[in-house]
Prior knowledge:
With 301 residues, the chain is of the alpha/beta class. It contains 12 helices and 12 strands. It has helices at 11-22, 34-43, 55-63, 80-98, 136-147, 168-179, 197-210, 227-238, 250-254, 258-261, 270-276, 285-291; strands at 2-6, 26-31, 46-49, 67-70, 104-110, 151-157, 159-161, 182-185, 191-196, 216-218, 222-226, 242-245. A 7-stranded parallel β-sheet has the order 3-2-1-4-5-6-10, sandwiched between helices. The protein has a 3-stranded mixed β-sheet with strand order 7-9-11. It starts with a strand and ends in a 10-residue tail after the last helix.
Amino acid sequence: MRIFLTGATGFIGSHVVTELLGSGHAVLGLTRSEAGAQSLRRQGAEPHAGDIEDLESLARGAALCDAVIHTAFDHDFTRYVENCEKDRRVVAALGRALAGTDRPLLITSSTGMGSPTPGALATEDQFNPGDPSPRVASELAGEALTAEGVKVIVIRLPQVHDTVRQGLISYLLDVARQRGVAAWVGDGANCYSAAHVSDVARLYRLALERGRAGARYHAVAERGVSLRVIVEILASGLGVPAAPISPESAADHFGPMAAFAQLDLPASSAWTRAQLDWTPTGPDLITDLQAMDYTRPGRGD
């Protein structure tokens, strides 16, 4: 198949490119820069000029391909609500381009959307359209398209990691570096589910090839790693103290990341593994955190 891929030069998307090409698919990758176009060509993919603000460029790319995988997302957390609404518009635009066909659209969401109540184990069969998280916008857009007959498949992500990036954890690392202390909130018992980026990329490919319309798949290798454990490793790597802070102090300490530092996001992938024969094989989160270079600043994607 020829796949139109948004976020093709990003952390996750670039690994999806490699996975798709390695399995014999062709990739048309969205990019807004010449440097991105050159990077895609070096990988063996074809660049498509545009970005997620340009809905017409998205429609053109989708129209040229047999399927669409949407991994792009604006990770400016000072504008999180706005960016989630932007993603709703992107999903809708891609879906309109596929309307009346059987070409699949794979969209990206968060495992938190599968939690029936805050802190409860997220599963693939759960979705609350009234969820207070702004991230619900993407799945609501997917639901609307599914009702119109578009073949929408949802990939829900945990903290996706390697030795350079770890999703929300990379942003918490930035705060620790700036503050000179690595902190957790309260007792630090809240947790993040996680998966290595290579396993996540493989799941996108398997869902493309075998997934069914309307399904939600969880790219989860580890159900939950406690924030206290994560933060203690960050502190050791940075050479700064690790300490708890109160919920009342979280906003001052973490800024826009305060709510994310307090999330409790355990998630299961039992159904996904059974349905798609997906078995994660990459390093676990702690292994990657312990192996990373803490002298190199960088953020998650």
